[in-house]
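Hi team,

As requested, here is the filled-out complex form for the 2-acetamido-2-deoxy-beta-D-glucopyranose run. I kept the field names the same as last time so the parser does not choke. Let me know if anything looks off before we queue the next batch.

— J.
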Amino acid sequence: MWMIKLVSLVLLASSASAATAASADKVLSNHATLLADNSANLAFSLYQNMAKEKGIDNIIISPVVVASSLGLVALGGKASTASQVKTILNAAKVKDEQLHSGLAELLTEVSDQKTRNVTWKISNRLYGPSSVNFVDDFVKSSKKHYNCDHSKINFRDKKSALNSINEWAAKSTDGKLPEITKDVEKTDGAMIVNAMFFKPHWDEQFHHQMVDNRGFMVSRGFTVSVEMMHRTGMCGFYEDKTNKLNILSMPLAHKKSSMVFLLPYHVEPLERLEKLLTKKQLNTWMGQLKETAVAMSLPKVSLEVSHDLQKHLSELGLTEAVDKAKADLSNISGKKDLYLSSVFHASAVEWGTDGNAIDNSIFGTDKLKNPKLFYADHPFIFLVKDQKTNSILFIGRMVRPKGEKMRDEL
Ligand SMILES: *[C@@H]1O[C@H](CO)[C@@H](O)[C@H](O)[C@H]1NC(C)=O
Ligand SMILES: *[C@@H]1O[C@H](CO)[C@@H](O)[C@H](O)[C@H]1NC(C)=O
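And here is what came back:
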């Protein structure tokens, strides 16, 4: 009797822990998997569209968050205003409910602090003009699926309207994004605002003492002073000799995603590289990575970048929602009185030396002999690629880090 009880207790305990392990590594649903993959296509088309624009230097976008904002438009839209979103997400056949739950599932998975050891704070808000009435159903569903809150804003006093948007963004990122916009062009529509703070934790840390000041060459004649961190270790590495660039892939904590750097051999405008950048090419490069000893030097980064994506999304096919005469966003307000006037997408991204402890047993062994050099002291493209879902959490380019101009060389 006594023995039997003990056995069943042990069995109970082991099945309980198996259940926790399974939930910690949940399998994505089919529609979330499809949307993850499609959001990676969106990453490249949106990046390419933005890179064409003159006058912007650094770019940071989170394609999975952009996909979510598109989902919000689909939730508020009717007829072709809504169906255009599905076309952009290549999800015409996905049912509405699955679109919203799938996008929510994807974002919850990739931003989970516990299973990924990442700091990724995402806040979303929909602003409408003071005349608008938000429908209860929409308020509830948009909160549930997209963690989006709502606010009316009176642009008759533009300065205080701008202040309140910027204050909200600062507050929701613990001060990391002090200002997301200096101006709003069109003040009569609905505005989606994403405010994010992202800080990855490396799978292998940099020693905090291995940091010094170096020059970062923005262009041949212009160098700024930045903090660079250095480390030698094993990493995914590939040298593409034909295209004259080096690719480095560094896993983030828990190895569920990695940060991929695309660095041309020498300082040059990034256009040449950007022309090559497609999902297919990235997959080819990823397939060529080999575990290699690399002596890497990366700038410590703290960037705040804000984009209005409205125009870019319309160029990718979201033509109705942004058009005052055609937009039907009546699921938001019960009337055909709204159009999408801006999509502010703002991120503060920081990376430094923090990460998991290094496996010291490798030092002094042959493995680290003759490391490849990866010295990121000039403009590069970076991506945070997710292994588990195949989505792209961030894509961007670092062209102009913060830092004092250094003395011109003769
Ligand atoms: C990541 O893990 C480290 C070490 O366990 C911990 O100190 C840190 O707070 C974690 N960060 C996040 C964002 O979970
Ligand atoms: C949007 O409107 C359509 C048609 O009136 C309705 O069937 C649908 O349930 C609405 N969606 C939401 C999220 O309220």
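Two things worth flagging: The pocket of 2-acetamido-2-deoxy-beta-D-glucopyranose (ligand 2) is lined by residues 75, 78, 137-138, 141, 331 (CB under 6 Å). Residues 1-23 have pLDDT under 50 and may be disordered.

Thanks,
J.
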